[in-house]
Automatic annotation (TrEMBL):
Protein name as catalogued: Multidrug ABC transporter permease
InterPro entries, per database record: ABC-2_transporter-like (IPR010390)
Record organism: Paenibacillus antibioticophila
TM region(s), chain numbering: 29-52, 119-139, 151-176, 205-226, 232-255
Top-rank taxon: Bacteria
UniProt KW keywords: Membrane, Transmembrane, Transmembrane helix
Amino acid sequence: MNSFQTWMHMYLLLIRTTVRSRMQYKFNFVIGSFLAAFIQISEFLMVAIVLARFGGIRGWSIHEVGYLVAVMTLSKTLYRTIADEVHHLEKYLVSGDFDQLLTRPLPVLLALMPQSFRIMIGEVMQGGFILCWSLAGMLKAGSIGWPTVWWTPFIILTGAIILFSIGLATATIGFWTTRISELQTFTEDAARSAAQYPLAIYPKWLASFLLYAIPVGFVNYLPSLYLVKGELGAWVLAVTTAMAVVCLAAALRFWQFGITKYQSTGS
């Protein structure tokens, strides 16, 4: 067995251990998942009521906006299911527990990611419901064809990679600052929330910022211009894929550099 296979075996073993520990409280897990889904779907329904009253927003129908929300939600869910602890790196840096990860027989990132593996059933239910509802509505209206349906899982995957890359780059800054929660609120939470809706509703400077500085617009908005609105061209899919690859490569390089600057804080 080569080193990569060994690493992946240990990574999956850590995930299995975390899942088993969470499933010790199955009732809490099930109830929590349904409540999370209900609350988040209710939030979208409030927006949907407003959109239904005014017939859309900047040329985007209620189903098209729902598609943006669903793709962003499912991309975030995929990222946070696999690598949630990247978002919580601060607690390891503050407590000094990051030192323990450095001693594991795994690349540090692979040792970190499964530490608190999350099964985000509520978010999957929410995103899945809104996605199916949106696609069904657009198919019925004839505004999209089946290729949009087939391409959507790929767009969710590239979106998850981009969000992971943004999260990893933000977390890496913690090797210099230690505290990163306020920065994450800006680069991850606020940016992602803004990009759930058409960037056309924002001033040009903000839309450009969400496309090029913090590229959350590539998660859902840019691919949707082609897949949902029929604008631009198929090259959008290639550009989105390239952005995911570039963001991931850059974030991993930055992470490796950041580790060299890490200084233990102790406990």
